[in-house]
Amino acid sequence: MRKTTIEIDDDLLAQAEVILGTKGIKATVHRALDDVVRRELRLQLLERLKRMDGLDLDDPEVMAGAWR
Length: 68
Description:
- Helix 1 packs across helix 2.
- The chain starts with 9 loop residues before the first helix and ends with a helix.
- It has one domain.
- The chain is mainly alpha-helical.
- It has helices at about 10-20, 25-50, 60-65.
- It is about 65% helix and about 0% strand.
- The longest helix is centred in the middle third of the chain and has 27 residues, at about 25-50.
């Protein structure tokens, strides 16, 4: 872990705390960084799945029936 000093916009921090359900700078920044990393990993996984043979995730006709 690294300890550092940064300037943070108070209004932006307050909004992030509400959205993330966190309290305090440390918890909010940690959760935001964690969310960014997890989002990117999910996107990378989705791209790999789309490239696999036999998957029709980009076919609108197939996907339209997937949620019925």
